[in-house]
Amino acid sequence: MAVPLREQLRKALPVAMKARDRVAVGVLRSTLAAIDNAEAVVPAETKALAIEQSPLGVGAAEAERRVLSAGDIARIVQDEVDSREEAAVDYERAGHADRAAQLRDEARFLGEFLTVS
After folding, report:
1. According to CATH, what is the number of the domain 5-39+68-116?
2. How far apart are CA 57 and CA 55, in angstroms?
3. Where are the domains of the chain?
4. What is the pTM of this model?
5. Reduced DSSP (H G I as helix, E B as strand, rest coil) percent helix, strand, coil of the chain, to 5
6. Cα–Cα distance for residue pair 25/53, rounded to 1 Å
7. Is 73:35 a contact under the CB 8 Å cutoff?
């Protein structure tokens, strides 16, 4: 059975941290954050309640998160790859070949997760 893409990314994070691979750690953290942000929902606008009508208990006021499909997560990761490649082109045009190369390495690193899943 194939391991979900999100789990692959999460499992790769501590491995990258132990290897002290700063580039991989940064890419994985930002990609996992993008996935987490995509799950967030805009809370419904509510009027302020009197204190006795306020929700009580742990998590009572939390909004339920969206459930993302495997395809949604793959699209988010692909968007992260694409944005890095586009930024690399911009940096190259601006004469920052070193930063462009770093972004291309990041995109390649993330792209490997898409080919595995």
Report:
1. 1.10.1510
2. 7
3. 5-39+68-116
4. 0.80
5. 70, 0, 30
6. 44
7. yes
